[in-house]
Amino acid sequence: MSKKDFVPQEIARRIEQGNRRALARAITLVESAHPTHRAQAAELLEALGSNRQAIRIGMSGTPGVGKSTFIESFGLQLVESGLRVAVLAVDPSSARSGGSILGDKTRMDHLSRHPSAFIRPSPSQTHLGGVARRTREATALCEAAGFDVVLIETVGVGQSETMVGEMADLFVLLLAPAGGDELQGVKRGIMEMADLILINKADGDLKAAASRTCADYAGALRLMRKRAQDPEGFPKALMVSAIESNGLSQSWIEMQSLVDWRKQNGVWQSTRADQNAFWFNAELRHALLTRLENDPEAVAASAAMQKAIRAGQVAPSVAAERVVRSFLGPDKK
Amino acid sequence: MSKKDFVPQEIARRIEQGNRRALARAITLVESAHPTHRAQAAELLEALGSNRQAIRIGMSGTPGVGKSTFIESFGLQLVESGLRVAVLAVDPSSARSGGSILGDKTRMDHLSRHPSAFIRPSPSQTHLGGVARRTREATALCEAAGFDVVLIETVGVGQSETMVGEMADLFVLLLAPAGGDELQGVKRGIMEMADLILINKADGDLKAAASRTCADYAGALRLMRKRAQDPEGFPKALMVSAIESNGLSQSWIEMQSLVDWRKQNGVWQSTRADQNAFWFNAELRHALLTRLENDPEAVAASAAMQKAIRAGQVAPSVAAERVVRSFLGPDKK
After folding, report:
1. Among A58, A220, A288, B32, which one is most buried in terms of CB atoms within 10 A?
2. Residue A225 pLDDT level (bands cut at 50, 70, 90)
3. Do A3 and A143 share a domain, yes or no?
4. Nearest CB to A280: which of B45, B289, B316?
5. Residue A273 falls within a domain, yes or no?
6. Measured between CB atoms, does A224 come within 8 Å of chain B?
7. Cα→Cα distances B203→A114, B179, B206, Å
8. Which of residues 135-164 of B touch A (CB under 8 A)?
9. Which of residues 173-192 of A touch B (CB under 8 A)?
10. Is B260 contained in some domain?
């Protein structure tokens, strides 16, 4: 957007009125790393006046587990019950793997065409920090646009789950029926983040295996330490079939009961507050380091010292102190 | 040291003459996080004129493997052959566990009393970044003091190994004989760092088990990808008995042949250069962030915004940008 056309209050108003084109363009804006766009994004975020809150659901699952099919079925059920649903995909690797960028909407064919749904594929960006900010700010825009549910989908690679866990109100782990007691490559940390484990594909030939897998995970969850943010019975394992649309209503009922309990017990707000503080600290570090990296004099000073540093003629801490001192100027001690 | 008594050139001269008291006091200085001491440490490091290089040996092993006994035996053999040996312990947990702070010297009774040996226990500091700088700078002081070998001992916890790997010329992993083909809790990453795996306790009843374990690791090492920094046959697995002083000469011969090859092939210098560049970048980030954290105005600005941040009334990135802008002043873009 050129500077002349950019009137943040006007864009904010359109987003809050539910204008999908304004929302889509605003998400494009927060995805940009360009300084002008970052400044505009900041103005826009500040111009948002609503206090609307969606239920932010983080969702993960290893490839092949049927995540897109699940989101399609689950999302359709929500929009058909009158809710507005946004889907944001987080895939730090999508720039390389390619597939998912074009694939997301195709695989969620019915949902993507529903007027109450909004699906936004991953931006082609590999930097996890950039993806984190974009997803967080896109979520805020979707909330301002009045969506009731924001599904934040991620792939089972570990780091992105942790990131999504730091911005979601609840976290759902989707698993496939396993033969025997395999662990399906799910990292322990991701399992500990889950509020709900859904064993998908509980249909046809896999139904018996799904039942066993579900019982295994239910048993494993019972052995885990009770968390302060959980009512009795959570985290919980359930069977679902995205293809047959079985267990989806029950999943939504469980999610709602968890949300209700957390809101009543102050956990909802305190978790969001802690998440905001966490991201502020992360952004603070990032912003400061970026300034240093983009400062021509600091870059030149570092480059000039590289030879002495590499030769061990100046201690790394001493060289660093010099660069920082010249960057910050004589006033800052 | 008070400012009046502090003459860096004089201290540097005494260290380079082999004055142990000056070395010990200088290490205490680089261990301090106090700003005055940091400034003095920087002056001292700059005043060191020598280009002496020791062989920096990183050494790790899980508890119970006989690390202290090994260092005692191995170190004694080196000093008795005319070399000067310094031992630095890295134990980020020592402040909590307590034991090792007093234990180090006691457990290396003979070595610690030898005039050519210098043993420095872990400082009571838990911050890994601080431990990294202290160990690096203490190593530089030991090199200036003319030690031929600096043994940097660490415990098998993962993060500290990686850190020591970034400042050592070669890395030795000490293991105990295992029953069957257990992995002894050694992380794959640590095994991949090792130049030499020594199976200790190859004596008495454990000799046969040590032989099997050694063969297992030798096999595992052969399956690993060839590294650019290795001559033929490395990394290597050997059996040793610290108690019976068996295999120690052979270990030292292997280490020397590795060092010679690396020096002849330019690997030694390029590794040190890369390590210095790595630490410069780490120190640069650390120094800048520390300034922000210690800036009263930035701290006050962050605190003043906390309520709005936690309530979600201001986006984390927007709040961070404001704090950084006011910290850096209007000149810095």
Report:
1. A58
2. confident
3. no
4. B316
5. no
6. no
7. 74, 15, 6
8. 136-137, 140
9. none
10. yes
A305 contacts in chain B (CB < 8 Å): 280
Token pair recorded at residue B85: 């040996």
Residue matched to tokens 């966490």:
A278
The answer to whether A34 contacts chain B (CB < 8 Å) is no
ipTM comes to: 0.86
Contact A324 B287 (CB under 8 A): yes
With an 8 Å Cβ cutoff, is B52 touching chain A?
Answer: no
Closest residue of chain A to B312, computed from CA coordinates:
A276
Give the pLDDT confidence of A267-307 residue by residue, as tens digits. Answer: 999 999 999 999 999 999 999 999 999 999 999 999 999 99
Is the CB of A285 inside 8 Å of chain B's CB atoms?
yes
Are A199 and A233 members of one domain? yes
Cα A284 from Cα B92, distance rounded (Å):
27
Residue A333 lies in a domain: no
Q: How far is A26 from chain B (nearest CA, A)?
A: 15
Q: What does the pLDDT read at residue A4?
A: 66
pLDDT digits (tens, 9 = 90+) for B2-50: 666 789 999 999 999 999 999 999 999 998 888 899 899 999 999 998 8
Taking Cα atoms as reference points, which of A318, A312, A315 lies closest to residue B53? Answer: A312
Q: The whole model's pTM is what?
A: 0.80
Sign, CA dihedral B69-B74-B79-B83, equals: negative
| Chain B, nearest residue to A315 by Cα | B45
Please tell me if residue A4 touches chain B, with a CB cutoff of 8 Å: no
Which of A274, A291, A316 is facing B328, going by the closest CB pair?
Answer: A291
User: Same structural domain for residues A39 and A64?
Assistant: no
Residue A42 and residue B317: Cβ atoms within 8 Å? yes
Statement: residue A136 has pLDDT above 50: yes
In a domain, B270, yes or no: no
Pairs of residues, one from chain A and one from chain B, whose beta carbons lie less than 8 Å apart: 143
Indicate whether A11 and A21 sit together in one domain: yes
Do B184 and B71 have their domain in common? Answer: yes
Domain hosting residue B29, numbered range: 1-49
Domain match, A101 and A58 both: yes
Q: How far apart are CA A67 and CA A103, in angstroms?
A: 12
Q: A242 and A254: one domain?
A: yes
Q: How far is CA B28 from the centre of its chain?
A: 16
Interface membership of B319 toward A (CB under 8 Å): yes
Gyration radius of chain A over CA positions: 23
List the single range of A163-167, A258-262, B181-185 with lowest mean pLDDT: B181-185
Q: What is the pLDDT of residue B102?
A: 43
| Structural domains in chain A (count) | 3
* Amino acid of residue A47: A
Q: What are B125-180's pLDDT values in tens digits? A: 556 667 888 899 999 999 999 999 999 998 756 778 889 999 999 999 999 998 65
Residue A164 corresponds to which tokens in the numbers above?
A: 């999504």
pLDDT digits (tens, 9 = 90+) for B115-125: 999 999 877 55
Give the Cα separation of A177 and B216 in Å (integer): 36
Same domain, B40 and B85: no
Angle at A88 between CA A85 and CA A92, to 5 degrees: 165
